[in-house]
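Hi everyone, sorry if this is the wrong subforum. Our group has a chain we'd like a structural model of before ordering constructs, and none of us has done structure prediction before. Sequence below.
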Amino acid sequence: MSQENHQKSPTLDPEEIARFGAMADEWWDPTGKFRPLHKISPARLAFFREQICKHFGREFGAEDALKGLSLIDVGCGGGLVAEPMAKQGAKVTAIDPSENNIKAAKIHAEQQGVDIDYRACKAEDLVEGNETFDIVFVLEVVEHVPSVPEFTTMVSKLVAPGGLMVLSTINRTAKAFALAIVGAEYVLQWLPKGTHQWNRFVTPDELSDIVENAGLVPRERNGLVFSPFKESWKISSDCDVNYFLTASRDNKS
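Answer:
Right subforum, don't worry. Here is the predicted structure as tokens:
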């Protein structure tokens, strides 16, 4: 793997990039370090499809429900979301500042015969190029950046008029500290220790204010909760730990 050098900025933390880049070879291993992302995949992919179809008036059951829609996955990692979105018909661009992650994602997509525009770059690069997309995903990313307001405001500029933005992150609650950090990292060891930092968690109210100040309209808040009896995840109204926030841009913006 190549050595990656990044300068720290309000929207980029080189230590976080290096942390995930070092695990790039394990993205598609369902029993490896990214096992939690594989476990939540069925619930969140169904949620994404539902939100997109509802927003754009598409038929949920259609095989190519996302056909013709442009989508960008910001901080795509190894492509665990980018690939299934492309398979559903979306024209997908997926970016990550880690060259290691993008290499792993490209290799897997090629093996699967999936066409995705993968780029090892920063979101700022696309903003500077005035690129916009119908759908912008920012998943499990904001809790890893130095400044959530600056990063989210910047990424919001990628949403095209009439477009949809979906963010997912972790709430700043005592319950989240107990489950997402103590439980997931130290007790159950679902995640490597140090994956999350408490001071970077953001509440739904804070995130809603940020996207609204960036010119978007906050729409829905939905939680993602774990059912220990079924050993599966489901969408819920409980946003105490993991949650999604959807927002849209006015057609005239």
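For your construct planning: DSSP finds eight helices and eight strands in the chain. Residues 182-188 have pLDDT under 50 and may be disordered.
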